[in-house]
Amino acid sequence: MSSRDLVAGLARAGRKVPGVPAARRMVIPWLRDNDLLRRLARRLWMTEVGADGRGADLTAGKLLGGVGRDTLPVLLVDLTRVPADGLETVVDELAEIQLITAAFRPVLLLDAPAFAVARKYGYPPELVPRSPTEVDRIAYWKRLRRTYGTALRCTVGAEGLTPDERVFLFSLSQDG
Amino acid sequence: MRVVDVLDISDFRFAGGTAASIAEEIAAQAGAGWTTGLIHLNGPLVARVTGFNPRITEQLADGSARLLIGHDPVRAAITLIRHPTVLDQASDQLPPITTEQVVVIVNSTMIAPDGAREFDPARINRLVRQRFGLDPLWAPLSSRIRGQLLAAGGDLRLIADDWVNVIDARSWHVEHDAPAGDRPVIGRHSRDVAAKWPRERAELLAAYPEDGSVEVRVLGGARSARAVLGSQLPDSWRVWEFGTREPREFLQGIDTYVYYTDPRWIEAFGRNVLEAMAAGVPVVLPPVFETIFADAALYAEPAGIQEVVRSLHRDTNLWLRISEHARATARRRFSRQVHVDRIQALSGLEARTPQAGGEQSGHSASRLRGTPATRAADERPKLLLVSSNGTGMGHLMRLMAYARRATHFQPHVVSLSQGVAAVGRLGMSYEYVPSAAGLGMDPSSWQPIFTDRIGAVLRRVRPAVVVFDGTWPYNGIEELRSTHPDPLWVWSRRGMWQPGRSRDQLKKAAWFDAVIEPGDFASAGDIGATASAPAVRIPPVTLLDEDELLTRHAARRELGLPTGGRIALVAFSGGAVEDVTSDTAAAIAACRRVGLEICVTQSVVAPDVALPDDVHVINPIPLATYQRAFDVAISAAGYNSFHELLRFGTPTLFIPKRNSALDDQGRRARWAADQGWSLCAPRVSESGTVPMLAELLEHGDEMIAKVTAMDPGNGAVDAARLLTDLHRGRT
Asked: Helix crossing, B686-710 with B581-593: angle to 10°?
């Protein structure tokens, strides 16, 4: 018997104990969403950060539910070219795609402190320094990549997400 | 304020029947011209972080529904909450909602197999009152769930008729013959959870025997069944994991649908059963389902299941009668119109003509794939044409030749050739799949890529007929036939294989419903493996017919060639397998010596040959359109060039490709020369070619006259007719 079969067998046996299924239904969702326990689990089991930021200690925002959202790839979304009055629309759209695909955890890169758009969905924002030299910019991006452990990046233009960018974001989905 | 006609609130991550049912209702609402908003709640039943069900994602993309996120208020004529547990544990995620009617659709049992309550109706009532300010209507999917709700007591307003799941029966229609095998093939489709299987070994084996008396096919996985059996699954079972096959295609392969579950568990409806019925598969169920499906299914206690299965297998008339009645019931009692009618009755919404654009089409996600109105209106059956990469354009040209004449079909080409853009120039849709060589990949590593990519095309295009043109059918085809049994498959393989080579490939004819062999002017000289292999032999195939060629003057004008003087075509560019530079250089020198202007083709598959400035370089597709511009040709002897040059009257010196993998160009060219149709040389040398060019210029007309006399006509017409007949025979 494999270890998987053993665990499955024990789980089946456990479910037959009177009262366990009902308790399970109530307790497990609470456990899943308990921040403290999730942090503890991360310390115990999460050791490596993948090249796309999987494993980085970072929130997925408020929209997604379920186990594993802390291990989704991290996507740096450069919004510095988006005019201030277009930011909310872009972030709304990004949030829709995140919810539909459950494929990434965005970090919003802003060139002005418009943090309200990030707070709306609980996404972490970064304020990109103004007018840095090229050397500064390189150092900044290195820092970002060190911080979030990802090279996955989406640059949004002044007109918002292009069809190709949307397709790219949808393609990050693990389905199909 | 965001305004929609119908607001659907649910957890759109569900993988199984719940999402399928929501998707059907969204489609029905869109069909009635109503706008649909979706509010997603992260309910407790989906444990892992998961994206939306692909069907729902597709509907968001095509504008059938609109995703509503954030806390801006929403107004809707009617609100449908599917799955009470979703609201039970996630109602705090809702934005402010104004609505005239709230319906709580109870699409799963209220009582779990262990007796525990999945949700508390009184609590749901309270939550709805708090969030919406009105009492909900409760809509059980079946009388079994209605009974549970009534037993729960409390002050529940139940709708009069059960909220049956609906289905687009047309999209589930499959061609299905009565059982013909030695033993019945039974099947079932469900998620792999314990409650969906009989919990006792004897009962499970009564429904799904292990003794080989029937073949058991399972879509959805069978780990739970294995746990009950306590042993490995029987050899007579074939199991596919959930989501790995199209259910419709799965259903086409089974004779009888047998669906038995843990008797303690109450299946609220059984969408999988409805899908089987819509596909015309007779269904055998426990008697408890009779209140849902009435006389559209057969019912048996476990001990009697196999007798019912056997009687259906024995009695074709009975099978056909049950099959047709199941289809008719799915169309009549469970159509999308049923949903439209109940929404109208509950909300007062009037069905409108569906709007292609409007509020939803401007929505961000809908821009991803276009609105329904932009989808092709072409209702012809699809013809999928798959070409291998080969060394030239022959495979593609033959397929296009078929497609142009098979007007009964809507063609779509998938090619491994980088010359595939030629298909687009003829106005056909196409896509490119890189070959193993194109990726620098070992064929064994590449095969799964081929299978995956072609599988995706089959799911998307849903062809009625697939034609593969190539001499080496890839192993993935056999697997694809198993996983996508719907389309007919035809192998188009030319003859004239090098003697003794690739004989084993001919066994792969068994993977196909028909084999076409496009004829060869030199077929009488063919001594390769195909010469005696069974096939439907048709005359030689060319993309064009003679009346489609430009006149000499028009062709030269369009190619930018001198209108006067004699011009030779030098065409070694049909392949990438060898360096053509030396042959081309010698041919150019020979043409200069006999006073010919020179025109060289530079194909996309061999683009880097450097040429002198006084040589005209052309790259027209199809080249044959311009063939009358030339007085003579020096060409390789591939299938396509050989037949076009001879059929359309260009006196030619053929230089067979020396390292062609399988195509016996040498034998083809020599045969033609022996018949006096053309000349042939093993290679081009300036001194040897000059007298040959002179002979072609002097006696070319006589050579071509001989070809014309024996040409039986373009076999593409015969191929098109065969494809059409095959399809009509099936339908």
From this structure: 90
Q: How many residues does chain A have?
A: 176
- Cβ burial of A117 (10 Å; 0-12, 13-18, 19+) is buried
Q: Which residues contact B549 (CB under 8 A, 6 or more apart)?
A: B555, B624, B625, B626, B627, B628, B648
Question: Within 10 A of B447 (CB to CB), how many other CB atoms are there?
Answer: 16
Query: One-letter amino acid identity for B380?
Result: R
For residue range B182-231, list pLDDT tens digits in order.
Answer: 899 999 999 898 889 999 999 999 999 999 999 999 999 999 999 999 88
Q: What is the mean pLDDT of residues B387-406?
A: 87
Q: Could you tell me which CATH number the domain at A48-171 has?
A: 3.40.50
Is the predicted pLDDT of residue B368 greater than 50, yes or no? no
What φ, ψ does residue B98 adopt, rounded to 5°?
-110, 130
**Residues in contact with B226: Cβ distance below 8 Å, sequence separation at least 6, in sequence order:** B232, B233
Of residues A60, A67, A96, nearest to B69 (C-beta)? A96
Q: Give yes or no for B57 touching A (CB within 8 A).
A: yes
Asked if this assembly's ipTM is beyond 0.85, the reply is no
In chain A, what residues touch B117 (CB-CB under 8 Å)? 22
More confident residue, B365 or A67: A67
**What element of type H or E holds B383?**
strand B382-387
Q: Read out DSSP for B505-518?
A: GGGGGGGSSEEEEE
Q: Residue B598 and residue B218: Cα distance in Å, rounded?
A: 65
Domain residue ranges of chain A, discontinuous segments joined by +: 1-33, 48-171
CA B317 to chain CA centroid, nearest Å: 32
Residue A38's SS3 state is helix
DSSP 3-state of B605: coil
Q: Looking at the complex, does the CB of residue B582 fall below 8 Å from at least one CB of chain A?
A: no
| Phi-psi group of A39: left, alpha or beta (phi > 0 → left; psi -120 to 50 → alpha; rest → beta) | alpha
| Amino acid (1-letter code) at residue B487 | P
Closest by CA position to B639, among listed B386, B384, B391: B391
Give the closest of A97, A99, A167 to B40, CB-based: A99
Task: Output the CA–CA distances (angstroms, integers) from residue B436 to B58, B393, B448, in the order listed.
Answer: 32, 17, 11
Q: What is the per-residue DSSP string for B20-60?
A: HHHHHHHHHHHHTT--EEEEE---TT--B-----HHHHHHH
**Of A74, A95, A78, A76, nearest in space to A158 by CA:** A78
Chain A CB contacts of B364 below 8 Å: 92-93, 96, 161, 166
Q: Using a CB–CB cutoff of 8 Å, tell me whether B230 touches chain A.
A: no
Q: pLDDT tier at B731 (50, 70, 90 boundaries)?
A: low
Write down the number of H helices and E strands in chain A: 7, 4
Strand partners, A163: none
Which burial class, exposed, middle or buried, applies to B191 when counting CB atoms under 10 A from its CB (0-12, 13-18, 19+)?
Answer: middle
Give the Cα separation of B213 and B685 in Å (integer): 71
- To the nearest whole Å, the CA of A43 is away from the closest chain B CA by 20
Average pLDDT estimate for B484-497: 93
Q: Which of B221, B226, B217 is nearest to B183 (CA)?
A: B217
Whole-angstrom distance, CA of residue B437 vs CA of residue B414: 16
Residues of chain A contacting residue B49, judged by C-beta atoms under 8 Å apart: 60, 64-69, 72, 102
Distance CA B641, CA B603 (A): 13
Which domains does chain B show, CATH number per domain? Answer: 2-166+336-360 (3.40.50), 169-333 (3.40.50.2000), 368-541+715-730 (3.40.50.2000), 562-710 (3.40.50.2000)
Phi, psi (deg, nearest 5) at residue B84: -60, -30
Cross-sheet strand order for the sheet of B679-680? B616-618, B597-601, B567-571, B632-635, B652-654, B679-680
Q: What is the 3-state secondary structure (H, E, C) of B117-170?
A: ECCCHHHHHHHHHHHHCCCCEEEECCHHHHHHHHHHCCCCEECCCCCCCCCCHH
